[in-house]
Amino acid sequence: MNRVVHFEVYTDDPEAVQPFYRDVFGWTFKKFEGGPVEYWLVTTGDDKDAGINGGLLRPREGQNPGTINTIAIPSLDETIKKIEQGGGKVCVPKMAIPEMGWLGWPTRRIRREMFSG
Q: Both 54 and 32 in a single domain?
């Protein structure tokens, strides 16, 4: 079974929303340097506690603000094949994330998730 391992919050002003998440939920933010986009790593709690961490960034061109979940999979290529066989489409093709791995975004009629492998 493949599990959600990361989330990303897309917002038009990442710096403006950080105080809200920090004050309400106690989350911390650290700017990630060297990536293809301006990105903040989000820590939601201690690693010994249940839960996942995430990221905060601006939407890509044509993308609306919102949240995307990352699901850990053994093979991105095999999962893309399954997505397409199941009637889904890839809206963001496979791309490398420096020092992390690969990602691609499929889309279905109702919701969108991000898969990484």
A: yes
